[in-house]
Amino acid sequence: MDEKTTRELLVKSLSWGEAHADWNHAIENFPANLRGVRPKGCPHSAWELLEHARIAQHDILEFCRNPKHESPDWPSGYWPATPEPRNAAAWDKSWKHFQRDNKEMADLIADPETDLTAPIAHGSGQTILREVLLVVDHNSYHLGQLVLVRRMVDAWSKM
Fold first, then answer.
1. Which of 30, 116, 134, 146 could link 129 by a cystine bridge, Cβ 3.0 to 4.6 Å?
2. In this predicted structure, what is the pLDDT of residue 89?
3. What CATH code is carried by the domain that includes residue 103?
4. Contact residues for 84 (Cβ-Cβ < 8 A; gap 6+)
C-alpha cells in the first residue's frame, strides 16, 4: 500500500461507520432530557461518554502537535464532573469541539509533511501513527457504549 492510500485509510478510519453507527448517527437528535441518564447497570451517561471522548481526543491531538501541551490529571481530568450537561449549549459545544478536533487530526494525518512513523520529538517513543490508532480505538470503544446507552434509555427509536 502506498503512503497516500495509507493516509486516506487512516483519515477515513477516524469517522467511518461502515459496519456500525457512526458518531453523527449516535449523537443526532439525542433527546436533551436523556443525555444525563445513567441506565441501570451502566456507569456512564451519554453526556459523560461524549465529553470523555472529546477530552481524550483533544488531549491526543494536542500531544501530537504541541510540545508544551499538558495532559489533564488522570483519571479525573478526562471525565465531566456530572452525569448531565449544564445545558443544551454545553452538549452542542462538546459535540462541535469533538468534530473539530477529529477533523484537525484528519488534517494532520493527510498532510504529506507529517511523518507518521517518526517518534514525536517531545514524547517517549510515540508516533503520530500510534496516536491516531489510539484515537480510533478509544473513540470506537466509547461510541459502542454511547449506542448501547442510547438504546437503553430508549432514545434510538426517537430519531
1. 116
2. 98
3. 1.20.120.450
4. 35, 36, 37, 45, 47
Does residue 159 register a pLDDT over 70?
A: no
Residue 38 lies in a domain: yes
* Rounded CA Rg of the chain: 16
Question: Residue 127: helix, strand or coil by DSSP?
Answer: strand
Query: What is d(CA 100, CA 58) in angstroms, rounded to the nearest whole number?
Result: 9
Domain count, the chain: 1
The string over 102-122, giving b where at least 16 C-beta atoms fall within 10 Å of a residue's C-beta and e elsewhere, is: bebbbebbeeeebebeeebee
| Side-chain half-sphere exposure of 138, counting CA atoms within 13 A | 21
pLDDT of residue 158: 52
What pTM was estimated for this model as a whole? 0.95
Q: Residue length, the chain? A: 159
CA distance 23 to 20: 10
Instruction: Report long-range pairs for 25-30 (Cβ below 8 Å, ≥24 apart).
Output: 26/143, 26/146, 26/147, 26/150, 27/95, 27/146, 28/159, 29/158, 29/159, 30/91, 30/150, 30/155
**Does 158 fall in a domain?**
no
On whether residue 116 sits in a domain, the answer given is yes
| Structural domain containing residue 142 | 3-152
